[in-house]
Specification:
17 helices, mainly alpha, 68% helix
């Protein structure tokens, strides 16, 4: 495949596919596959831009050269559960088991997207990496998997790696909460996610394989992951929102 065709495939935007996936997601908010389809349809050349930024970073260049597969490690329950309590790896293990998740589940949900079409080896690895560390982002930020936690995490994610597909989902979710739960200051929660994303170290350029045994709280402090205070407060003060949203 020549470079021009590869570039066009990377930058192609599919609004009708996004609309169809949006309708399905509104009918079933738990259908994670539709989230990936929306992001895929509207993201354009996100992966190409991310590779460029990685190549401009010393650790990023090393990751691109080695292309580690973090999925094998994140699926190793025996190893993760043996890590020190309070470590990133142990907390991740607790998170995925409590939520009945797996790194392979993210892969299955993303099947059918364009991430492997017309991409270079660096782009394929980077696209997979962004997908595979998604639940690590839950752990590092402290956002849960309830609807508002997911929306706040998306705000963090698109600040770290700008993505029009994710921005579209955030706008759709914000409109939903304005209409259905006007008492919730959803804009403040979205802003908090963006603020955390701006202050924190850039997650794609970190070799998480080497840091899983470190203290989660120490790493959060070192890398600037501020606690999501407004999100935590909304859970404590208005728990009914998370049952009805």
């Amino acid at each position: 495949m020549n470079s021009l065709k590869r570039m066009l495939l990377r930058k192609r935007v599919k609004p009708f596919a996004a609309l169809l996936a949006t309708r399905k997601l509104l009918k079933d908010p738990d259908d994670t596959r539709q989230v990936f389809k929306i992001i895929d349809a509207l993201s354009g050349d996100v992966i190409g831009r991310t590779v460029k930024r990685l190549s401009d970073d010393a650790t990023g260049r090393e990751l691109l050269a080695k292309k580690p597969n973090i999925v094998d490690l994140l699926n190793d329950s025996e190893r993760l559960s043996a890590m020190p309590p309070g470590s990133i790896g142990y907390t991740y293990w607790q998170f995925i088991h409590m939520q009945n998740l797996s790194a392979d589940g993210l892969i299955a949900s993303s099947e059918g997207t364009k991430e492997n079409v017309g991409f270079t080896a660096d782009e394929r690895w980077t696209g997979n990496r962004l997908r595979d560390i998604r639940d690590l982002q839950h752990v590092l930020t402290g956002y849960g998997r309830n609807p508002i936690g997911e929306l706040s995490l998306l705000s963090f994610m698109t600040t770290q790696v700008p993505n029009q597909g994710i921005n579209f989902i955030i706008k759709m979710g914000t409109r939903k909460y304005r209409q259905e739960i006007p008492s919730l200051d959803i804009e403040a929660l979205i802003h908090e996610g963006r603020s955390i994303g701006q202050q924190a170290a850039w997650m794609p350029a970190i070799c998480w394989e080497d840091r899983l045994e470190e203290s989660l709280e120490d790493v959060r402090t070192e890398l600037g992951f501020n606690p999501p205070i407004k999100y935590q407060s909304s859970q404590i003060n208005q728990p009914e929102l998370f049952a009805t949203a």
